[in-house]
Structure formats: structure tokens, C-alpha cells
Amino acid sequence: MRHCIYPGTFDPITRGHLDVLARASKLFDRVTVAVAHNAGKGPLFSTEERVAMVRDSVTGLANVTVTSFGGLLMDFAMAQKADAIIRGLRALSDFEFEFNMALMNRHLQPAIETIFVMPNEQFSYTSSTLVKQVAKYGGDVSHFVPPNVGAALKAAFASAK
């Protein structure tokens, strides 16, 4: 049974993330979405909130599970007995960072491959950061995030006012 990890902060999860995840779910028997604690990035949502949003967004993908992790991704991947890491590449600007990360991960654990997946081109400019900026100023983000995430963004920014 082939198993991959799809790691990220997912603050919040976007339709671009979900597109990459759907592609991964066709390539692997089992996919684990690994929500990084990553407090250093100063996420808008807590780890628990991000896990819940992802879970609510992947109910149609039977071979996908969602959990959180802290520490080195490769330690987590080994503990999960994963064969690969899936990473989304939206644009050339993502490649340098992701390439360097993949090489470091290969150094740490050569048995686990990193596979890059491109989302549908309609999501090539979508990022969690941009979605949060648009939502913060009351813009419509419904094209970029699932309804549960849109509602969470609206609530988060309404309580910040």
C-alpha cells in the first residue's frame, strides 16, 4: 500500500491545496494531510482549527486522513511509514524553495521521495497569504476556499475589528 504525506501549514487550506490533494489521492493508496504546528509563522488559526477545516474539506476523499505534527517532517514521515512527500508547485517562484527543501529531506531520509504536483492553472496564483489579505478587507474569497473556510475567515476577521 503506497502512502504519501501532504504537509503544510494550511492557514487556511485553499482550493489549490485541495486540487493537489485530489491528485495525490489518485496516485497513492493512502494520503495523510499533515498540518504543521509551525507557530513561528504566526498562523491566523490554531493547529486544531486548521486540522478541523481540512477534515471538513476532505470528506469526499475516502483515502485521505488528517493529523498534525511538529518537528522534522522526515521524522514524522518515517513514523507514518510513508513512501513519499507530495508538494504543490504553483509557479516557478515556488520551485527554488521546494527544490532546496526536497534536497534537504532527501539528505535526512533518502528512502522517502518528494513528488511535485501542479494544481490546476486556475489556482496558480492562489496562496493562503493572499486569501487572508483579501478576506481581511472584506473581499470575496469563495472562489479560493471551501465554504467552511470562508466562514472561518469571516468570523476571524470580524472578531479582530
Compose a concise summary of this entry.
The protein has helices at residues 15-27, 47-57, 73-79, 92-108, 128-136, 147-159, and strands at 3-8, 30-36, 64-69, 84-88, 113-117. It is an alpha/beta fold and 161 residues long.
Query: CATH superfamily, please?
Result: HUPs
Parts with pLDDT < 50 across at least 5 consecutive residues: none
Give the overall shape, derived from the CA principal axes.
globular
* Mean model confidence by pLDDT: 93
Q: What oligomeric state best describes the polypeptide chains here?
A: single chain
H and E order: EHEHEHEHEHH
Number of helices: 6
Given this structure, which CATH class is correct?
A: Alpha Beta
Which CATH-level-2 architecture?
3-Layer(aba) Sandwich
CATH topology: Rossmann fold
Can you give keywords for this protein?
161 residues; alpha/beta; Rossmann fold; five-stranded parallel beta sheet; 5 strands; 43% helix; globular
Topology summary:
Blueprint (H helix, E strand, L loop, with lengths): L2 E6 L6 H13 L2 E7 L10 H11 L6 E6 L3 H7 L4 E5 L3 H17 L4 E5 L10 H9 L10 H13 L2
Parallel strand pairs: 1-2, 1-4, 2-3, 4-5
What does this structure look like?
- This protein is 43% helix and 18% strand.
- It has one domain: HUPs (Rossmann fold).
- It has helices at 15-27, 47-57, 73-79, 92-108, 128-136, 147-159, and strands at residues 3-8, 30-36, 64-69, 84-88, 113-117.
- It starts with a strand and ends with a helix.
- It is an alpha/beta fold.
